[in-house]
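Supplementary Methods, section 5.1.

A reviewer requested that the exact input to the structure prediction be made available. We therefore reproduce it here, unchanged from the version used in the analyses.
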Amino acid sequence: MLPDLLLVFADDYKILNLFRYITFRTGGAIITALILCLMFGERFIMWLKKHQAEGQPIRSDGPETHILTKAGTPTMGGLLILGSFILATLLWVPLSNQYLWPVLLIASSFGVIGATDDWLKLKRRSSDGMSGRQKLFFQMIAALLASLIFIQLSPESLRYGVAVPFFKDTLIYLGLIYVPFAMLVMIGASNAVNLTDGLDGLAIVPVIIVATCFGLIAYLSGNIQFASYLQIHYVPGTGDLATLLGALIGAGLGFLWFNAPPAKVFMGDTGALALGGALGAVSVATRHELVLAIAGGLFVLETISVILQVTSFKLTGKRIFLMAPLHHHFEKKGWPESTIVIRFWIISVVLALISLSTLKLR
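The structure derived from this sequence is encoded token-by-token as follows.
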């Protein structure tokens, strides 16, 4: 919005030319979202506590320590993230950018699905909200619409194609199968972040790390000179998604201020589904879907641990892990929560660096 309003006067006021630069707007989006979170965070948490007398329902089969340390903590803090993220994005990203809207569609619709799930859990005083089928159905509708929009916006040479990391100019053409593939990326990323969100600060920091990684990828993919030099696919218009991810980073940092151990608020499905979906949507827009699996490898690992646990129990009656997702396994082994969280952050940083190396190692 600000670029649309102010660049009209750039010829008269040279300083306004700053709004032409993605780097400047990204910095502005980070600071704006961060300030919004910090300004309204305390009051928002007080409002949540007022309307959530007993806080987020704790899993009865979860780690015993959670009953003591996390009982009474309000959930749906994702509303704070989403509000700051969307407002900062609309302020700093040109509204004429066509990629802006499908990404916001995924973030907001997945956020509504998550908020509904959180609300039902609070209403029923149970860790069971919407059924998995219900959530998946509504996610599929939003993801299908966004996938079709992304395909229509993509350069003709990239439509229905999946770029392969480490190989220059290599595309795997999937044809119409690309539509369910793109849907899987967005829905999978959304639910993977949700599975990871089980300890204070565990999910939000890796989200910030992956968003930083993809902010750089979006900037480079949307710049024809950088894309040509790095031999990655040029996708016109995706550069502004770096600013959108800047807003996500700022909102994430602001939320972390209140979610740092001991957490004053949990993001809930409201935040986890929305943030994961947004990252998945940007990876589809920039045609770096497979790189997301590397950068977000921590989320993938947590998801695989759940799949393996369920499959093993159904087939053999035995569990591979003491508890799934994986972070709960280490809790059961006696690791302190802070140790698990920090070590998982380190893993996330390493995976992000590996994913960025794919830009040059071609």
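The mean pLDDT is 92. These observations are discussed further in the main text.
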